[in-house]
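Hi there,

I know you've been waiting on this one. I reran it after we fixed the sequence typo, so this is the corrected version. Both the input and the resulting structure follow.
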Amino acid sequence: MSADLPEREGPPPPGSSESSSAPSRRTFIATSTAVGGAVVAGGVIGGTIVAGAEEAGAAGASPSSRVSLTVNGTRRTVTVDNRTSLLDLLREHLDLTGSKKGCNAGACGACTVLVDGRRVNSCLTLAVRLEGAEVTTVEGLADGDQLHPLQQAFVDEDAFQCGYCTPGQIVSGVGCIQEGHTNSPEEIREWMSGNICRCGCYVKIVRAVEHTAAGK
């Protein structure tokens, strides 16, 4: 047998000793639920959400580092976010925009630069890992107004069309020549295969590298 009392729907009968101001069970439950909900909501708004915002703000401060490297013969020291690529360091911090951001995934070679004489995709290279390194970009190949022999060969052979990939092609070609991989057109194509020319100037690019290597 249930011990619950039946819920009263209407006002107390006349003459009842129960005060008319006493809340019914339904009124009491509804009021308690509303107050409890407000407390919980207040706790969420005032606590969890605010705390979460503070934590997110603290997490948003990315670590940075100071890095010194030599770029095109000049010593440069900059403070950068630890996630900054060498390409972004060159373009956004040092205003050396010759190296192009093509795919930003190391697949096209438009961002090729020389690091300590070796060809690298600067979009995949973290700047903070190059402390003390020597970096050469396409801007550093010429001697004042005197073009690098490979730059001149690209002009002479008309080895470009839109020109977007040209800086990376030239820097990669310089590296290819320094590495000694220019014994045949086939070898040049193999060792330059990481540099994509969307305009299809490969024959003239290979010819420019071949002629420069022969005259070095």
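Quick highlight: The radius of gyration is 36 Å.

Best,
R. S.
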